């Protein structure tokens, strides 16, 4: 007979064996979006076998890239014109068919516009609660997420048989795309073209700057900049630091910059090595999107501005003087 301790060990290793996770890869057919690697890291924390579903039009390169990541046992590939534009209406039936065939215990996607559009739909079809934007994994059933705009941290135990989860990329390190050799197989066949939507075209912003959510350095501006033209000061500084440029919602609402630059509760969540907040007061909704940055620098003329409470380095100064000075010294 086994001792209780040994029995528990055997039981937990059997549980891990029965556990299996499906990650829905985010990619542009040619390459994975970096956040897929962070999602893989969350899946590995959950434990058990990890498979990745790569659906697209000619997505061979993306599938091959993820098959090389350590810990990926299988990559399921679905290629069809139905997946043009990666609409949730066409991807949902594919995810459901894949789930029917393999019975995963966990289905994960990044908490990006892609994952946020797809997984609640999948969860509804599976009649389970989606678990959104997790920032930590305690065990296979217990997850950590923030509530009240990041002011409280919640630990939740999920009782649903299938856990459908979106993952906050900045909360998990990226898993390298090396060291593994997952089998590449075909995903279940089917007719996935949706009658509800048709993808027509897309116009993507072209920029030589790093993408905001994966940038190592970010220079961000708020209402204190006073106009869109004045953002040039930030672009000049960003060029010196190879940084992305972000903004507060007040700056976006005032029309200084487009809304894809917005950082915060209703914008993008970022966690770069360096975040320079210029003319931003530090409202909780803004902090919700950037307070996990490694080093926060604030430039604000008001010494009482709340941003100074979360900043590692603070400069009480007029930004119109301080920013050009800083740029010229770099
Ligand atoms: C539901 C909800 C969701 C929201 N989501 C977001 C979100 O996602 N992101 C977000 O950012 N906000 C969000 N907000 C808005 C948020 O509450 C604040 O209104 C906003 O963040 C303020 O932006 P700001 O700091 O640029 O502007 P202000 O609060 O007006 O601050 C401007 C700062 O600039 C400083 N300043 C002015 N002139 C100078 C100068 N010459 N030199 C130096 N400093 C100067 C001032 O001292 C001040 O601190 C949300 C609000 C709600 C209700």
TrEMBL record:
Cofactor binding remark: Binds 1 FAD per dimer.
SMART domains, A to Z: ETF (SM00893)
- Record-level Gene Ontology MF annotations: electron transfer activity; flavin adenine dinucleotide binding
**Listed PROSITE patterns:** ETF_ALPHA (PS00696)
Q: What is its main location?
A: mitochondrion
Q: Which residues form the Electron transfer flavoprotein alpha/beta-subunit N-terminal domain?
A: 21-203
List the keywords (alphabetical): Electron transport, FAD, Flavoprotein, Mitochondrion, Transport
Please list the GO biological process terms of this entry: fatty acid beta-oxidation using acyl-CoA dehydrogenase
Positions contributing to FAD binding: 223, 248-249, 262-266, 279-286, 300
Protein task: The electron transfer flavoprotein serves as a specific electron acceptor for several dehydrogenases, including five acyl-CoA dehydrogenases, glutaryl-CoA and sarcosine dehydrogenase. It transfers the electrons to the main mitochondrial respiratory chain via ETF-ubiquinone oxidoreductase (ETF dehydrogenase).
How is this protein named in the record?
Electron transfer flavoprotein subunit alpha
